[in-house]
Amino acid sequence: MTRKADQLPADRFLDREEGWLRFNQRVLELAEDTEIPLLERTRFLAIFSSNLDEFFMVRVAGLKRRLATGVAVATASGYHPRDLLERISEVAHEHMLRQSECFHRSVAPALADAGIRIVRWDHLDDDECQRMRRFFRRSVYPMLTPFAVDPAHPFPYISGRSLNLAVRVRDPHTGRQMFARVKVPSVLPRFIDLGGERFVPVEDVIAAHLPQLFEGMEVLERHAFRVTRNADLEVDEDETDDLVQSLENELLRRRFGPLVRLEVEETITDQMLNVLREELGAEEEEIYRVPGPLNLAGLAQIADLDRPELKYPPMVPVEPRVLTQEDFFAVLRERELLVHHPYESFATTTERFIALAATDPRVMAIKQTLYRTSGDSPIVEALIEAARAGKEVVVLVEIKARFDERNNIEWARKLEEAGCHVVYGLVGLKTHCKIAMVVRQDDDGTLRRYTHVGTGNYHPRTARGYEDFGLFSADQEVGEDLSDLFNHLTGFSRKKHYRRLLVAPNALRDGLRRQIQHEVAAHLQGSPARIRIKVNSLVDEEIIDALYEASRAGVPIDLWVRGSCVLRPGIPGLSETVRVRSVLGRFLEHSRVFVFENGGEPQVWIGSADLMPRNLDRRVEALIRVTDPGHRRRLVGLMELAMSDTTSSWHLGSDGEWTRRTHDESGAALLDLQNTVRGDRHLRLVDG
């Protein structure tokens, strides 16, 4: 029925890193789209910059580490890491210049037409200059520290993602020239408000006042620059007795990671660039010369302006109607509840679930995993309140959640201080599953477990912008599954098989492969067969090979992938039946949905796992099988909407290029998926 992977074409995988860059290119295309509200385009420019920062800090840093340590095997796409770094540099240079062009030629002029202007110092009028001089003396000057470089003063350390000015000064008495660095304080706004919706880059304000920092010296030139450093953490969990302390030590070292990118304004002179290159140890492909201003991630400040006519129309999440009519726990005793964020309210469903449990005298215990959240989250506050009320509260905090490590450590300690039992997960694995369980003694004396399994984090802020699903249940099998899973996470259980869950790393990979093989067998027997998957990333080679084999057998396969996809669709004899789509828009598509036709009775799963080796092999992930027929129809309908030729989306070609389709052949606009879901009362109120 199948053939071994080594008999499949050697070039069957696209490159993962370039695939991620192509995802960020799609974000940039949204910024370039003049049909999108102006301040939303501005925000997409900011997101593009933030995404690229993280890509360099993690993915590029990882490739460089492999080269430095001699682990330089070829990637699945055939690239040697050194060749791949060169290719990344080529594409990233192209994208950064394209972003700058979008800002200068499209977004900034459109902002100016709307009365919002980002102006450089030379374009300030006299009143604005005077106001900025007062602002500088009062709010900026006390925080600045110029660092000269000479035999007595070595080149200062440049922290990652900081904005800096490289300055060349001359002593008029001796004629001696010196280099100096001035760091832009990170506590200052990226753009200083001049009033009247006019803004000036903060580095321009500092640059205009350099003579006050270098009094008696002649300022010959100054140029903005920015460094990106390796920010990935390496903690050997097998060699540490205190994971929290080891992680805190590693966070301190993160500030001093090696350089992976040097951004400079294109106006920088060769002399100044050579100083930076030599002192920072930057290779030619690591240097990015772009039109200023640098760090356009700061455009989020502009996007936050109170100009509703330049933003997406307001959206008020709805509350499932059934929850407005009955007690939450009573609802779950009658039926399972599927909620779709942000279209349906996170506050009145997930937050409310934990808050009710915290104050309900019949609730005996609460158990929950937390991967990312905010320290002032209502969920964290509810867990603290529950512990103080004497309830048994167990919280598994993943302190290795990338870039949230410090925050997670801080509020984990607050939970401990309140009396919660805090667990930091399993050695060698990240706990990424999104699960919660409430144990309640109901009116009939039954000790019942009420559960929640989600696709997204318990984070109230991201829940307003991330698209995710959550399933609430009082089903006995689900309750037993979550009890077993929490025992595995907090104790020494080695349980592998569950009732309605597929759990990584022990069973999820094999479970998905079995589902794929079942579709192949069904198709060969003439039964309805089809595979539909929605994930953030599809890069796992073993799963992709299984999908290739299913396609070779004739099984139709629809893949909805937001980010990086290394599967090549539409290749004769390999993936002819595979279609790959991507949807980006107002909300970040974040849910993971797996639909297998199963002979006409679809098996549908939702959960936390992407199709990446780290999710399947190095994380604790959970998918839950959706059993309610209405819920299954709802999820299948969403997949059909995303893959429809009448829906606007990006289509992946076998060459790795994504093509955006927003209009049909007649020129009519295609449906916007997120607007369609938002306006579809069936999708929003199906549980009512």
Structure notes:
38% of the residues lie in helices and 22% in strands. The protein contains 21 helices and 27 strands. The strands form 4 sheets. Strands 14, 18, 19, 20, 21, 23, 24, 25, 26 and 27 form a 10-stranded mixed β-sheet that branches. The protein is of the alpha/beta class and 688 residues long. The protein folds into 3 domains: 5-10 and 502-685, Endonuclease, Chain A (2-Layer Sandwich); 33-310, 2-Layer Sandwich (polyphosphate kinase like); 321-492, Endonuclease Chain A (Endonuclease, Chain A, 2-Layer Sandwich), CATH 3.30.870.10. Residues 235-244 and 681-688 have low confidence and may be disordered.
Q: Whole-Å distance between the termini?
A: 45 Å
For the record, the CATH architecture of the largest domain stands as: 2-Layer Sandwich
- Overall 3D geometry? globular
Count of structural domains: 3
CATH class of the largest domain: Alpha Beta
* Mean pLDDT over the full residue set: 91
- Could you give a short account of the major beta sheet? 10 strands, mixed
Helix/strand structural class: alpha/beta
Could you name the CATH topology of the largest domain?
polyphosphate kinase like
Low-confidence stretches: 235-244, 681-688
Care to count the β-strands? Answer: 27
CATH superfamily of the largest domain: Polyphosphate kinase middle domain
- Kindly state the percentage of residues in helix: 25-40%
Cα Rg = 27 Å
Strand content: 15-25%
Provide a count of the helices: 21
